[in-house]
Amino acid sequence: MDKRAPDNRSIGVFDSGMGGLTAVRRLHALMPKENIIYFGDTSRVPYGTRGRDTIVKYARQDVAFLRQFDLKAIVIACNTATSAAIGPLRAAFPDIPVIGIEPALKPAVAHHRRVLVLATPLTLREEKFVALMHQCAGCAGCAEAILAGKAPVTACAPAGAEGAAKIAAIMGMEAPSGEKMVAHVLCNGGCNAVDKAVYEGLQDCNAAMRVAGGPKACAFGCMGLGSCVKACAFDAIHIVDGVAKVDTDKCVACGKCVSTCPKKIIDLIPVSKKVHVNCVNKDKGPAVMKVCSNGCIGCRMCEKTCKFDAIHVVDGVAKIDYDKCKNCKMCTKACPKGCIEPVPTAEEVKKFKEMQAKQAAAAKAKAEAAKAAETAAPASEDK
After folding, report:
1. Rounded to 5 degrees, what angle do the CA atoms 117, 122, 128 make?
2. 146, 156, 230, 336: least CB-packed within 10 angstroms?
3. What is the C-alpha separation between 282 and 319, in angstroms, rounded?
4. CATH number of the structural domain spanning residue 203
5. Which domain holds residue 347?
6. What is the pTM of this model?
């Protein structure tokens, strides 16, 4: 049993302003019986725009002021002061624990593969943040680019539109608006695509590309080796039946899979658009059919069916104009190869063909009636 007397001394907390009161509130919640003395250096706020030596000087003065009270610990409730001065403070005051806020970042990095950090320029330049950037290079680099004005506030995909708006507000900028984008794989070959060879090398698309362009006979399609899966930090893309598929609920449009794919068959599209041509093979129809049973053969049936001028065959393959597409899905039913998503059921195709037959019959009857009327008109005039 621990019979030591309780340490009733206070805990000193300081910040360059009053923002550190949030830390005080949290400390009170965790340790309601502790007495906390807070010092906000409001006369010299902000610290972030000053040089490192100046911040170290101010921080030492802050601690010296707090030390006039009987303290058992010092807490730095300031990102900038923690980054620049925690080492010098611990060296200058070895008899008292000096606690910075960096432990709060450590569990974030440990439990999340992407961490967004909003900080002052000095904090981003300091060794502590650089070390964090090496552990979480994606978003750390993104934050640095946003701060430097080299990337838009929307560059942080995980933040989403709401997060981008908050970042913009903090930085005094206007966040551009727009519909959420998601990644989409423009291929549905997979197990339906012909293999030209058995590949037993490194299970990586970029590595396989160096071996005769990959194992698939189709030079345009997904190889299914999962480089995009490895690149995705959000578990939003997986290999299903030999081809990459995106989970749009998880996708944040970070673009990692887009830049990783050596075939360049992954694109970012508006999430509201549900109809997609899952093929980019530009070869002629007979050549396409030799390498994939699901490939686009450029027959133009989709183009002829669309009432909104939203799909056209370009360079031998159908392409959708998403600005015009109404998600009517008529082109999906007209496609004889099933390469337009969502692939219709057999019943849907049957009803579509029946509808086409009725329309053709009606058009034929109308044309015959018009022709009969033209033939009858001269006879009436002769009388």
Report:
1. 60
2. 336
3. 11
4. 3.30.70.20
5. 278-360
6. 0.57
Q: How far apart are CA 287 and CA 218, in angstroms?
A: 9
Phi/psi of residue 183, nearest 5 degrees: -75, 150
Pull the structure tokens for residue 82: 């923690």
Question: Looking at the domain assignment, is residue 251 inside a domain?
Answer: yes
User: Tell me, what's the pLDDT at 103?
Assistant: 46
- Taking only the tens place, the pLDDT of each residue in 159-193 is 666 777 777 777 677 666 667 789 999 999 888 89
Regarding whether 33 and 88 lie in a shared domain, the answer is: yes
pLDDT tens digits along 247-290? 998 888 878 899 899 999 999 998 899 999 999 999 999 999 99
Q: Are residues 163 and 209 in the same domain?
A: no
The amino acid present at 270, given as its one-letter code, is P
Sequence letter at residue 326 = K
Any idea which residue has 């008899």 for tokens? 95
Q: Note the Cα 18 to chain centre separation in Å.
A: 35
Domain count, the chain: 4
Q: State the Cα torsion 20-22-25-27 to the nearest 10°.
A: -60
Q: Confirm whether 84 is domain-assigned.
A: yes
Token pair for 302: 């989709």
HSE-up of 108 (CA within 13 Å, CB side)? 14
CA triple 247-251-255, angle to 5 deg? 125
Taking only the tens place, the pLDDT of each residue in 62-86 is: 999 999 999 999 999 998 898 889 9
Q: Tell me how far apart the alpha carbons of residues 259 and 209 are, in angstroms, rounded to a whole number.
A: 15
Collect all residues with Cβ–Cβ distance below 8 Å to 185 and sequence separation of at least 6: 222, 228, 237, 243, 244, 245, 246, 265, 266, 278
